[in-house]
Amino acid sequence: MKHRLVFVVLIALAPGFLCAQATQTARYEREQKNSDNDYILISLQKEGLALVRDKDKYKEGKKQWEIIRVDTTLQEVWLLEMEIENRLRLVGYDYRDNQIYLLYREGDHEASSLVLFTIHTQSQAIGRYSIKQEMSFKVTHFSALANVVTLGGYVSSEPAILLYDLQTEKAKLVPGFFVTNSELLDLRVNTNNTFNVLLIDRSNKQSKKLLLKTFDATGASLLEDEIEIESERTILSGITSTLINDELLVAGTWTEGNSKQASGIFTTLINPFANQPVNYYDFGRFNHFLDYLSDKRAGKIKSKSADAARTGVIPDFKTYAVPMRLDEQPEGFGLLVEVYQPANNFSPYPYYGNFGPPMYAYSPYGYNPFMNRYYNAPYQYNQPVSGYSKMIYSALTVLDLNGKPVRDFGLKLGDLKTNSLEQTSDFTFYKGEIAMAFKKEKEVRILRSLTDEIEMDTLTSQLKNPNESVRNESEASYIRNWYNNVFYVWGYHTLRDSRKGALESGRQIFYINKIEVK
Predict the structure, then answer these.
(1) For 256, what's the count of Cα atoms within 13 Å in the CB-facing half-sphere?
(2) Which of 247, 297, 300, 415 has the most CB atoms around its CB within 10 Å?
(3) Splitting the chain (518 residues) into consecutive groups of 10 residues, what average pLDDT does each group show?
């Protein structure tokens, strides 16, 4: 691994797509009763998808859980049931190297032991591991390496990293943490079976620092870098890339002072052998980040941004914005940021004072009643709120290999309501083409671009039975990138059969649609 690492800042999105077409190429349906729990979907990339749910049924005092694997054509490959102790609560999940990882906690207390189940996608062999805890550990991040899982979180408000080895069935704390007045921003597994930890150190208010540490699967330190932050700026969030490219890219939002609203995005190349400048971009500098505002207001903000750049001051525009995903391709990076209106009394930083990291989760991308307890997709805040948040705008910035913005795109989300701050849109970044998409009611809206020009598509679900139509679409329907240029959409339909009487009740189903951008 080269020693140069890239540190990136959040930027706004702009629309752009042409000369491709989005189509639904497969569909999966499964009967669903009102009393049934919702499914959690775990992307297995080109191995398909895993569907997981608590069946709310018992056998010999144990609760039954259902796991279904479908392939990339949305055909069922296998279905199995696991009998799990009733006191276990699912709190995390991940996928790596043909293994599905399901992390449970015994009860709701943070000091309770954790239980890890693994399911092999080919043989369906199930493994069970008990992770004993000798201290109260508030877990916020969970990811799998080869034969090792990483748990990131807090012990007495101080960051900590725990490794659990599946072969020796032993856990150990990674040294070098437990730093007072610091927050764990990100824990990310790299493609070479190492992992990155990103911290913000606020122990010195006049000299705040970002700390980037990379470890191997045994917890041995491979690289450390410190990045000084300007005293008048505050880092709100940060994401690292995963070493698909030689450079390590980190991205995040920043603000001025102690504001909880973001002022813009920062970028930097991380190099432990030399000082690297942090590049701060305010939202007014992007072509499309402000497209959700009126033309008049957006024009004023951009004008003030230009004046601020000339005079060296920080613009006063701020908004609630959170990074949801950083995608890495050989030609560069794609950074997804969503703008939201918080619910009343909502605090996006539950772990340390008025700051602190989001509860992330990896590729699960799932939504359902359990979702607020899950930590496993590193891109989403994923926590309960009192009331509904409104997701307003989705912004995508394309960055070159040096972390510099090249293009940006955006989608208005139509004030989608969510009962927690979770990812609403997604994108594909494949062979130079960008596609952004979100699900609203019965439609999937897609923005596509190969250059700065854009095209918009609107897709509706194509049902398996031509005699049926959608009578009702639940609010719980979502879209995520699957692999390459493919999305998957899932939710719940009530279908009406035209051959039956109008008073007959409709058929309720859970569905998954596969959408390809060609």
Answers:
(1) 11
(2) 247
(3) 43 42 95 89 96 93 96 98 93 94 86 91 97 84 94 90 96 86 92 95 83 96 93 92 90 92 90 85 96 96 96 95 92 93 58 31 30 43 55 94 93 83 90 92 90 87 91 84 96 89 80 95
5-517: CATH architecture: 7 Propeller (2.130)
- The string of DSSP letters for 303-328 reads HHHHHHHHHT------B-EEEEEEEE
Which residues touch 289 (CB under 8 Å, ≥6 apart)? 11, 12, 13, 14, 283, 395, 408, 410
Is there a contact between 100 and 382 (Cβ–Cβ < 8 Å)?
no
Tokens of 331: 């030609």
Express each pLDDT in 497-506 by its tens digit. 888 876 676 8
SS (H, E, C) 413-434: EEEEEEEECCCCEEEEEECCEE
- Identify the sign of the CA torsion 178, 179, 182, 187: negative
- Work out the number of other CB atoms within 10 angstroms of the CB of residue 417: 13
| 239 and 362 Cβ atoms separated by less than 8 Å | no
DSSP state letters, 88-141: EEEEEEEEETTEEEEEEEESS-TTS-EEEEEEETTT--EEEEEE--SS--EEEE
**38-55 burial: b if 16+ Cβ within 10 Å, else e:** bbbbbbbeebbbbbbbbe
Of the candidates 424, 441, 443, the one whose C-alpha atom is nearest the C-alpha of residue 24 is 443
Contact present, 398 and 408 (Cβ < 8 Å):
yes
Task: Render pLDDT for 367-379 as a digit per residue (tens, 0 to 9).
Answer: 233 333 356 443 3
d(CA 316, CA 329): 34
Q: DSSP characters for 143-192?
A: EEETTEEEEEEEETTEEEEEEEETTTTEEEEPSS---TTEEEEEEEE-TT
Helix H or strand E segment including 302:
helix 295-311
List all residues 6 or more positions away from 29 whose beta carbon is below 8 Å from its beta carbon: 464, 509, 510, 511
Q: Do the Cβ atoms of 407 and 447 come closer than 8 Å? A: no
The pLDDT > 70 percentage for the chain reads: 87
Asked if 284 contacts 317 with a C-beta cutoff of 8 angstroms, the reply is yes
Tens-place pLDDT, residues 82-128: 999 999 999 899 999 999 999 999 887 776 889 999 999 999 999 99
Q: Which among 390, 244, 261, 264 is positioned nearest to 326, based on CA atoms?
A: 244
Q: Are 494 and 472 in contact (CB under 8 A)?
A: yes
Task: Tokens for 64, please give them.
Answer: 């039954």
Tally Cβ neighbours within 10 Å of residue 400: 12
